[in-house]
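Troubleshooting: if your tokenizer reports a length mismatch, compare your output against this known-good record of 228 residues.
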Amino acid sequence: MSYPKGRLVRNATLTRLNHWITGLFFVLLMLSGLAMFHPALFFLSGLFGGGEWMRAIHPWFGVGLIVSFCGLVAQFWRDNLWHRDDTAWIRKIDRVLMNDEEHVPEVGRFNAGQKAVFWAMAALLPVLFVTGLAIWEVYFFPYTSIETQRVAVLVHSLAAIGVIIVWIIHVYAALWVKGSMRAMLHGDVTPGWAWRHHRKWFRSLAAAGSAGPTPQSKAKFRQERPES
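Known-good structure output:
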């Protein structure tokens, strides 16, 4: 896929497709799960053809989510490893919230907040998957007891609440930082955006003569003064 001249590749096509498939499964799981969580939310089951259909398809959404998320983990885990710069960035979170990134330590492809979201999802989704299997009666009822299922339902619900909170933070941050949504919709960002929000990533691309998304990419770009 070709990108506008002078822009940097933030997310390749396969990455964006993987991300949106994961997001779709998550939203479907969230809506169907909330419908089962409380009677006041049962009206959401109408989106899936009623209660029986919803209960039957909800676990399969979970299978789709975990498979798709594994694709994101395979692509992003190296870029989300924690470094000293991330701890320094966290200490300057007040400056980040004030949109004063000139006084914040430079970060690579992902900042500490993005890494925290990534690893929170990486920790919580497997918990949801395993506990979901324990209460998936159609296939796993003979292998669990009622006591195990009760504990699994409680843990599953708590993990679901946690992962929804993380998802809300993720979506809010993507909307708050101008240009982030374009990076996941179209894949590219301006050099100015990269310089402002991910300066260390920008420097690594410039040093390698790469257009992104990583310094190892073969695509070249003409280094220019960053412009917003």
